[in-house]
Amino acid sequence: MKTFFASLCVLLFAAKVFAADAAADFSAANEIYAKGKFADAAAAYEKILQTGATSPALLFNAANAEFKAGHLGQAIAAYRQATLLAPRDAELRANLAFVRNQVQGATVRERFWQNWFSTLTLNEGAVLTAVLFWLTFALFAARQIRPELVPKLKGVTRILVLLTLCSATVLAVQAANHFSTATAVVIADNAIARSGPFDDAQTAFTARDGAELSVLDRRDGWVQVADGAGKIGWLPVKQVEVLPGA
User: Fold this and answer.
1) In terms of Cα–Cα distance, which of 214, 132, 120 is closest to 173?
2) Which of 61, 96, 66, 53 is closest to 183 using CA atoms?
3) CA angle 93, 119, 209 (to 5 degrees)
4) Are 79 and 94 in contact (CB under 8 A)?
5) 242 and 182 in contact (C-beta within 8 Å)?
6) 54-113 pLDDT, tens per residue?
7) At what angle do helices 2-34 and 38-50 cross, to 10 degrees?
8) Do the beta carbons of residue 158 and residue 139 sit within 8 Å?
9) HSE, side-chain direction, 13 A CA sphere, residue 113
């Protein structure tokens, strides 16, 4: 038992040190950004992200630096990752929309229902559904214990059941979209999509920096994608940033 608590204390201490180091590095990166050294700032933010640290503020600043450095794809990828953590941040979504408008060529956009469903994070949706479920369960339990309350609770019960079903449905669709679909954001100036997953294959189409493409398949360092015009091709993984669905 003593060994367990000692190990736990070491882990907690290490976590605090890690958080302190990340905060110090974040402040340093912000100073670099403030000096107008946007490429260096973007590299500094990326270094922090590679340690496993993440937050809406870190991703937001990283996206801003990437955009100022002229890297549209890297900026869009960071903004999109930030929206997964803070889906209702108006400034974040405004910046994402602004950068997207700079991208040339066919690209894939989220549909209206995807934007609507993503107003809550997956964790928030799961918590909301769980709360509604247990409230509904408690209400049915109360009806069983106190039958005389059934007429009074009839309307409330219907509303809670409806809300629980709606919340569960939205959560299921959101989870399916997040885990079963993926988007490839082009991070190269001009990425040439091939007809097959090899360098000598014919050119299928060219995607510009920042283009968002639907991921169809993956194979040996290549990803099969479709652009907004329906063209299909294979891109090297190093030329894209693959993100989960909204």
Assistant:
1) 120
2) 96
3) 35
4) no
5) yes
6) 899 999 999 999 999 999 999 999 999 999 899 889 999 999 999 999 998 877 766 655
7) 170
8) no
9) 6
